[in-house]
Amino acid sequence: MEAQQEASWFRDKFLEIKDMVGRVIVGQDQVVESTLVALAANGHVLLEGLPGLGKTLLVRTLSEAVSLPFSRIQFTPDMMPADVTGTNVLVQSREGERAFEFRKGPVFANLVLADEINRATPKTQSALLEAMQEHRVTVGGVQNELPEPFLVMATQNPIEQEGTYPLPEAQLDRFFFKLLVPFPDRADLARIVQQTTGTEEPVTAHVATGEDVLKMREVVRKVVLAEDVLARGLAIVLGTHPEGEGTTDHAKKYVRYGASPRGAQALVTAAKVYALLDSRFNVSFEDLKRAARPALRHRIVLNYEAEAEGVTTDQVVGQALASVERGTKDPIGV
After folding, report:
1. Is residue 233 in some structural domain?
2. CB–CB of 298/313 below 8 Å?
3. Which pTM does this prediction carry?
4. In a 10 Å sphere around its CB, with 0-12 CB exposed, 13-18 middle and 19+ buried, how is residue 249 labelled?
5. pLDDT digits 0-9 by tens, 258-317
6. 49 and 104 housed in the same domain
7. What is the domain-level CATH number for residue 237?
8. How far is CA 167 from CA 53, 118, 186, 199, 257, in A?
9. Where are the beta strands (DSSP E) in the chain?
10. Which domain holds residue 174?
11. Rounded to whole angstroms, how far apart are CA atoms 244 and 235?
């Protein structure tokens, strides 16, 4: 009964946060939900979309809903790693003694928005690697722990690529989800305009705390994963690789490198969150299907033929899902 109570608590708290954020962020229900899934799963999010679609507002609203400090880093080509992590500065005490003191950078916040991350040089981009993976920053040989819970949300513009530095595969792999932020339809656009140009502004209330987020992460790890469901999840990941018994036609023709082991971890963890949202304490194949595209799309490297024919990583993942569902090309006997 305890497990069912935890699942119910998780679902109620998740929906409460989602409802509060959704009052401000109009027309992006799927993006809001997926961001909260990553937060509950202890993962970072890469948002890809055009300017003005509410990506910054999403992070700020989420920080208010969960009562956590928010920091924004606007990446530019002239930024240095110290502008992100912080640096040691020489200070003098009242007694005249001098010593180096560490001044924290903007990465020392619970929710960090890395705006237009692909505008910074690889040297500056790499400053986030240790923070994202280890939840700490090393400056001058001293390790500085980041606050928990910690979430990085990075944005990039898919259209304007001049003067940008695409994220390397190793750093893309650190992101739990890659979310595509769509342009709102006519009805949602009308709601956005009315909401932002009127006299009343929506107020975000504190409906959760950092302790709630940490507890949600503990509940997620307790969700049961059956062997046959795990086998299907592994088959999905293996289906994105160009070589191997479980590969698909799309993967053979269009993929250079398939999803990494981190992709399998993200797929399973996100599926556990979706199971809890469905009031279950065990993962199903439907949960894996919901998590597959955002968890794997940025971990697949396509070849030139795919680019020439307009094939996307979502199509590769889709065929891997279809192959596992049919059970015709499953190397592990699902």
Report:
1. yes
2. yes
3. 0.89
4. exposed
5. 999 999 999 999 999 999 999 899 999 999 999 999 999 999 999 999 989 989 999 999
6. yes
7. 1.10.8.80
8. 21, 6, 33, 41, 16
9. 44-48, 70-74, 86-92, 98-104, 111-115, 136-139, 142-145, 151-156, 175-180, 255-257, 301-302
10. 13-205
11. 11
